[in-house]
## 1
Amino acid sequence: MEDLTERLRQAQLLERVPADTLRRIILPRGKLTEYGKGGCVISAQDKVTAVQVILSGRVNILYLFADGSYSLAATETALRILALDLIATRTKISPYYAVATEPTAIFSFPAALILEPGALPEPERLALLDQLLLMLSQLHMRTEYRMAILSRNGLRERIVVYLSMQAARRRSNSFTVPFSREEMAAFLCVNRSALSHELSLMKREGLIDFRKDHFTLLGLNAAPPAHGDVEP
């Protein structure tokens, strides 16, 4: 239990919660669930009423369409919170799927512990609400970054904006992106083959260099610096 308590306190949402409160109140109300690769953590139309902390692993947030295609909205990794944008909504109904891309462990506990007075000492609950508000703002900025990318009509334009944002965030023209090539195509809402072809053209033109998921910008200007704790 002590290892789990310390692990949870590494999550941004819970970093200001005393260990004793976690042990006495939150851990007994929560549960640990493990998912294999491809496991569905959240389905579209699920009602989400729990805070879900990723202890280990990786989860993709996907929008599935009637023709079988999908869009990758985000990738969440260890110590991130799943469905943070849903727990305080009126319906709490998910419009997306959350799917584990590798073995993943998630600790969940009722969101009511944060949203409703009574279960937690009020100063600690208010501190959690402050963290929740901060993280929702960061989530909103991640959405804004993606909308800025998708607002570009051309394939190359989307690639350039995305890669320059990554470089600006890391303050380096050489960086690793958090996506496979298939995931990158889904994130940019483009065809995978077309993406691979365009990246190869850009490499031949001396604009970029890359090996798998590691990119170096050679002839591109970085976008304005992204907020340091927001992943575009």
## 2
Amino acid sequence: MNPDPAIIRSVVESVVARLSGAQPATGSGHPPVAQPMSPKPGPAAVTPQTSNQGSCGCGSGGGAARQGVFACVDEAARAAHEAHLRLKALGVAGRAKAVEIVKTLAVDNAEAWGRFEMEETRIGRLDHKIEKLKITRNVPGTEWLRPAALSGDGGITLEERAPFGVIGAVLPVTHSVPTLTGNVINMVAAGNSVLFNPHPGGARSAALAVREYNRAIQRELGIQNLITTIEEPTLESFDAICKHPQVALLAITGGPAVVNAAMKSGKRAICAGPGNPVVVVDESADLARAASCVIEGAAFDNNLLCIGEKAVFVLESVFDRFCEALARAGAAQLDPRQLDALTQVAFSVEPGKGGGCSRQVLNRDLIGADPAALARHAGAKAADGAPLLFAETDADHPFVQQEQMMPMIPLVRCADFESAVRQAKQAEHNYRHSAIIHTLDVNHMTHMAREMDTTIFVKNGASVAGLGLGGEGYLSYSIATTTGEGITTPETFTRVRRCVLVENLRIV
């Protein structure tokens, strides 16, 4: 379904001519534009604006929007709905052009936007923030959508993938602009417009990208506000999006609380929920390769990826040699005393409600922290540039049981393969998100794949291979494990429409 450039030009010229009288307002009346948190200069396109306050029941006021950034959910939803109708008039060629615009801008601005997001969120690694935007070119677009046809004695049936309309989407702070970008590519390719409620910690980064995408889309296609976002997102704005009559579908990338709220909203929700990806290393594994793969996946953006290796279960017979392989590959090992010191800082005990059991609570200030910072908390000194810390723990340790999103990998010593898989499954908590195995034994691969029943299962590779990075496949930053859609594609955000012609058309 690759569109002819001549067709795109013809469609665009026609639509722009029809819309020439509906150009965006200019001047004052726009919400403030995001600025970097640090004195370092941000992207050149970001300039301060003044804000008009209105009264639309959103708490922060209505006011005019600039290039998709709104203070009011109702105004954002109505603008997104109008944009969806205009996109519909452009057909598949228009969608393809919009996707091309988004991919090109994401790659061209990867360094500036990655730096801006790093300055705002203060988590992860700058080089990987940049890389996450560059690889959005691997997210599938309109080419993914193909009709299905049936032909028989009763006639001909055609099934096509149709858009929902306006999709309400939630973004995580861990990958604000990359997740936004990947969602836009998938959702717009499917013919939808989008209304984002970003995490407050990454809202300014989201607004920056939304403005730039909309400017280019309006310039090339004549559509305003195809992508919208709430400037100051709150739980109240999320609730308003869930309830808004013009929001036809919800797409959630976040933790258990927001996923549960979306699933209780009464709307269909596609939910990329939590994960705690586990690894098993058996006695047949190529240990040097396994160590390199664990570092590649777990150290990426300081282990912020939801698919990143979080705990490794290693057979007793190769445990010490695997530790040596990790050290040779550049990872730094913590001794028991250092592990205890880091654990005291990384987790706190929260009393159970109503006299219930207490639980370990993650210190969110350490999420995405550099290995060197974690080493200092442990009373250790990691070698300069060490990408990852590791330490031996038992299977019940908080670093094993929690989705900790830090570049510190716990290793659990296991008596045999069956017990390794059993403990890994318990630590994964039946999220059915991601799992990895390093083995040359095909029976072991099959056994673990069946036991784990995860959306992504990688054999003898880094976790990122599951998203087509070092393995075959395609990329998405929203992996809908909770609701079962899996790695999202444009098809995920469509509804099936069937057209039936009875008799008489068939020529065979």
## 3
Amino acid sequence: MSTYILGIESSCDDTSASVICEGKVLSNLIANQEIHKSFGGVVPELASRAHQQNIIPVVNQAISNANIDKNQLNAIAYTRGPGLLGSLLVGSSFSKSLSIGLNIPLIEVNHMQAHLLAHFIEDCGEKKPEFPFIGVTISGGHTQIVLVNDYFDMKIIGQTLDDAIGETFDKCGKMLGLPYPAGPHIDKKSKLGNFNKYIFTKPKVDGLNFSFSGLKTGFMRFLEKEKSFNKDFLTSELDNVCSSFQNTIVEILFEKVMLAIKQTGINRVVFGGGVSCNSGIINKFKANEKTKNYLSFFPKFEYTTDNAAMIAMVGYLKYITKDFSSLDKGAEARYKF
């Protein structure tokens, strides 16, 4: 008998619902919130209100697209955290209510674990990573290096001490006058520029931890200086600036991951999160696999950003071992492994 899991994701500004069957995605819908673009970032109160409007139609459509009846669902998996508390509450409350109404198990999911376990979705690459591996979660809110021994045996061995990598892209992109989210725009323009044109200081942080606040400050001062000499500096140099800036971030990430490989002796590197679709990061890690003796795994584009398919996949893995959640557990903005 087939096992159907409904996944619900509402950690930030995307309302998503997905149905999977035995690891195969039957539907994966995402309702984006365009309103945040005019503010240059996500506004938590507006995000939670939009989730309230979107969650019923998105879930209903996901079940419909999967060509099943809601009574065929075996369990509901939802994002308990980390994320914006107001947004998480909408998803968790709805999931609990539906679980009670259908009398089926409820499964809590850690959003960051799900980014890494998305690789085990049936259509997310022909070759699945073997345990143990080094997980690298890079997104707008997180930058982590994780030692992954098994599906749910994970330990953070390095993380940012301040800004996340995606946040750094967006904040520096805003300085350049690029729309939010700026990361994809920087990536696109970097392909047209010379990545060696400008040099930005890479913060020195011990071990496997990161720091991007110094890079951000240095970038701001660089722009102020250049524009003081030439107010039209970015008109002619935007592509070169984007390329040089992105290359700096890629090098910072690459150096830390290489150190993680050296310290752990593990040569399988698995990426997850919205920034893992950055072409500079993908090209850097793929180009050096043979010379540095490691394998890198990147998820399909649709599983890089926040999506419910990865939540449903984790739900399926937990369903197999009957790792169910209780109704009294609340959403957690800083939910840890």
